[in-house]
Amino acid sequence: MPHNGSMEHNTPLISTIVAGLVLAFGFGLVANRIKVSPLVGYLLAGVVIGPFTPGYVADQGLANELAEIGIILLMFGVGLHFSLKDLLAVKAIAIPGAIVQIAAASVMGVGLGYVLGWPIGGGLVLGLALSVASTVVLLRALQDRRLLDTDRGRIAIGWLIVEDLAMVLTLVLLPALAGILKGDANGAGWQEVLWPLGLTLGKVAAFMAFMLIVGRRLIPWLLHYVAHTGSRELFRLAVLAISLGVAFGAAMLFDVSLALGAFFAGMILAESELSQRAAHETLPLRDAFAVLFFVSVGMLVDPSIVLRDPLPLLAAVLIVIIGKSIAAFLIVRLFGHPNMTALTISASLAQIGEFSFILAGLGVSLGLMPERGRDLVLAAAIVSIMLNPVMFVLLDRWSAKASEADDKLEAEGKLAVPVHHHDGHVVLVGHGRVGGVVSEALKRDGADFVVIEHDNDRVAKLQQDGIAAIGGNAAAPEMLEEAEIASARGLLVAIPDAFEGGQIVAKARALNPTLPIIARAHSAEEVAHLKTNGASVVIMGEDEIAKAMIARLGANTSSASS
Questions:
Q1: Which residues of the chain have pLDDT under 70?
Q2: What confidence tens digit (pLDDT) does each residue in 138-194 have?
Q3: Which residues are registered as beta bridge partners of 451?
Q4: Among candidate residues 436, 545, 544, 454, the one with its CA nearest the CA of residue 492
């Protein structure tokens, strides 16, 4: 074909990625500036390049496939921080919790369908679509609050996996049951229903067995082999190949969802000592494709539904945000977990996403639900995703203002250590590997210190040990004030995230201009960032290791020569 000079120099794939990321960045920046979650900006970017608004329209199919890559990488990353032991530890609450929540949302969906004049099948599909939370939204919320490695985070992830498995079964069974649900007397018999159900369960069991028997040996061995080549490029490629390859293979060979396949690949790899490096290598791609997921959700939404169907849309949103949340809250409390855990699970699951779109589309194609139902599900998804960060902000404020001592009393059976009336004390942010060593040294020296730690389980343990500790994110405005930073004699920022550390340092410096602030970093760029924000001293781990190695070598050489 001869080259046409006036021909557009783009392809649907490139233009979709470029338009999605550029607009997501612009709208996300504006959202962040006005103190709204960047997720809202990403969703609005999708609306702008969607088919329901004037101007450029991106390729919806490509956007969805790109978003699926984000989901795979995200679930692989979660698997890297999870273990089979963690999964089995929460099965007692995750399995009944997810089932009860799905059942509650389904009943509410049938009720809404009845009011709209739909048959029971249409209402059931609507309820099921409104019952299952979005993987990406839930994980982003937990990651932002560093809750993935807490009991609350593990329960939420376990719950999500049960929901995913339930939806895999639903997608298989729905076509077999379509005739019965439509009131067709000649619908499928029990044999036609039980056969696909048994087949699906058998495939899931076969996949899990394959991963535990073959994957458990092959995946860590392969990654160790590549690591020994010394090529960082090959290692990064190996991690991507394992995450995407296992997810795709699971979907093609075992009919397991891509997200579930990726999760198991990560969970198997978590047993390897290279898991942390693997998680680090996938992070940039994971974030980029996760953004494209939100853009693809925005593209699905027709804003005119707010005018066409305001009351049904409000009802659908209330089922997602209020109905599901109440069901989740009640069952978590019934299992004896504290209010904070129940509220966190409720907030995490009060949204819908990718499985909801697939289920709604299948319901329309089978004639179970009118197209109006799919529009309601899509609109409820975008509204719930937009409102989800607001729910977490309210949760954060509630937890800061409410007496956390009450929850600790329920969970631990004893009163929390009060954090008040400190003067000339040290504030320690973070009680992980580094913070734990620092606090031990401060305790040995008899120093007065206060710990700010995001993990409530660690906070409870510290308080149990008689150490003044506050639960929450130190970057939140009220946290440093609660730790009485204005009267402190020093601030030690022991968290590994230098970006968040910079925010903490800047806020502390504003509250106490003469305060000595010591922070940690992993690179020269992080050192510069922390110092720019007001850190007095920044210690880079690599520098200290190098100095210790040289000092140890010098000591050994001296002793050998003498």
A1: 1-10, 183-193, 399-422, 456, 477, 558-562
A2: 887 887 777 777 788 888 888 988 888 888 778 777 877 777 777 654 555 666 667
A3: 428, 469
A4: 436
What domains can be seen in the chain, in order of their start residue?
Answer: 12-394 (1.20.1530.20), 412-561 (3.40.50.720)
Cα separations (Å) of 417 from 60, 242, 316, 394, 408? 54, 46, 43, 25, 10
The token duo for 102 is 């799905």
In this prediction the pTM is 0.67
Tokens 């019952």 sit on residue: 131
SS3 429: strand
Q: Rounded to whole angstroms, how far apart are CA atoms 70 and 64?
A: 10
Which among 430, 460, 454, 451 is positioned nearest to 337, based on CA atoms?
A: 460
* Measured torsion, CA atoms of residues 295, 297, 298, 301, in degrees rounded to the nearest 10: 160
**Residues with Cβ < 8 Å from 552, sequence gap 6 or more?**
none
Could you give the C-alpha distances from 344 to 141, 146, 291, 504, in angstroms and in order? 10, 12, 23, 24
- Beta-strand relationship, 449-453 and 490-493: unpaired
The Cα 150–Cα 412 span in angstroms is 16
